[in-house]
Amino acid sequence: MIIVPLRLGLDALNEIYYHSICETFEYPQSVGILGGKPRASYYFIGHQEEHLLYLDPHTIQPAVCMEQVPFDHKSYHCDVLRKLHLSEMDPSMALGFFCKTRHDLQDLFERAQRVCRERMHRRHANHSIECC
Question: Measuring CA to CA, which of 20, 25, 57, 86 is 20 to 30 A from 50?
């Protein structure tokens, strides 16, 4: 398990990170994002455009008796899927990844490096000066 703590803005999440945050959910190693909004913590599990889908870890569920077979698995499911627009998200978060094999880890590194290269390319393209 790899947890990557980040702060992507001062008071609010900087828009330049929206695409990259959403892209991490596409990684096969992703286990989600720990984050939230001011005074609220959530576990983000996916995205739909610029909305993050989340579970509230503070929702109380009944205990499951694992000794009864088959056991009641209702508490593993949510009745309501919640979403939060990226503009409402606090800039402090932690990305979670699980790499079972060395190949998984290498793939994660390659994906992260590709995102960094693309961001640098976009940054330079946006700041280039055209001469007449």
Answer: 57
